[in-house]
């Protein structure tokens, strides 16, 4: 059995709670989350000691120990990407397959630095929103897409990746500029690509589904509402990545996604003005 190590800002969070069971089930018991490290205890939940004790996971005192004992590594901290660079330093030097949870990095500069570090040490690594794996998106025709309008719930800061990830997977990694077109309560971002294609991302209330309207240059269109079990598909791909050391997500797409999020936040301070994406 292959052992997986968690590295987190604090362990009492939803992704860390769900991944162990999903991984063990999807791998048929051939993989198990065995070790964990948390930089701090949850400010509003249970301690790392209690979290691990309740799940039969061994809490280790350092990232070094987790890296040494584990076959595969998962850097979590899904709502605190500002800690990913710190938490990933040793994993990305290890040569062991490493998954870094969403949102991959707080900015383009950090995203590039993480990929460079992994490349320097021959460490297989990838990151993705689970929404990339929704069957409604993976099965759609990509050729000829002219425009996309996407909607979803949550705050732009930590939930925009769930809309931007599918947009980039469908339209490619050549975004050129962004414009804030939303309101304080319903943030919106317009993304223009190098060839003139556009995608609009809108954030509504918690009751909003993940959905998308896709228009094709040929004149037809599709309306998509995500109803498939995208987390199950995501976990299966993570397991394949651990087994093969070969990520399916192109790094250029991940960097493009992070760039859009970074500049999208900047654009919201200057509504209805184009902001060029810097390389």
UniProtKB/TrEMBL annotation:
SUPFAM superfamilies: NAD(P)-binding Rossmann-fold domains
InterPro entries: NAD(P)-bd_dom_sf
Official protein name in the record: Gfo/Idh/MocA-like oxidoreductase N-terminal domain-containing protein
């Amino acid at each position: 059995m292959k052992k997986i190590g968690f590295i987190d800002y604090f362990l009492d969070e939803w992704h860390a709670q769900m991944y162990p069971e999903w991984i063990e089930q999807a791998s048929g018991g051939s993989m198990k989350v065995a070790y964990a490290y948390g930089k701090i205890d949850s400010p509003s939940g249970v301690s790392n000691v209690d979290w691990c004790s309740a799940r039969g996971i061994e809490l280790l005192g350092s990232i070094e120990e987790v890296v040494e004992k584990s076959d595969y590594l998962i850097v979590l901290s899904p709502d605190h990407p500002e800690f990913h660079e710190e938490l990933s330093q040793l994993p990305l030097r290890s040569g062991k397959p490493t998954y870094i949870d969403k949102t991959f990095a707080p900015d383009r500069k950090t995203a590039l630095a993480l990929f460079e570090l992994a490349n320097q040490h021959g460490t297989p690594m990838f990151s993705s929103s689970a929404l990339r794996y929704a069957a409604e998106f993976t099965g759609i025709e990509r050729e000829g897409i002219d425009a996309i309008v996407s909607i979803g719930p949550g705050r732009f800061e930590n939930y925009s990746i769930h809309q931007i990830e599918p947009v980039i997977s469908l339209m490619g990694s050549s975004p050129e500029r962004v414009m804030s077109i939303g309101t304080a309560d319903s943030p919106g971002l317009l993304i223009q690509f190098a060839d003139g294609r556009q995608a609009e991302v809108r954030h509504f209330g918690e009751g909003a589904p993940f959905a998308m309207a896709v228009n094709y240059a040929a004149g037809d269109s599709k309306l998509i509402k995500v109803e498939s079990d995208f987390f199950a598909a995501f976990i299966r791909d993570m397991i394949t990545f651990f087994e093969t050391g070969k990520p399916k997500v192109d790094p250029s797409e991940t960097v493009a996604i992070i760039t859009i999020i970074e500049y999208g936040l900047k654009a919201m301070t200057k509504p209805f003005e184009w902001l060029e994406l810097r390389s």
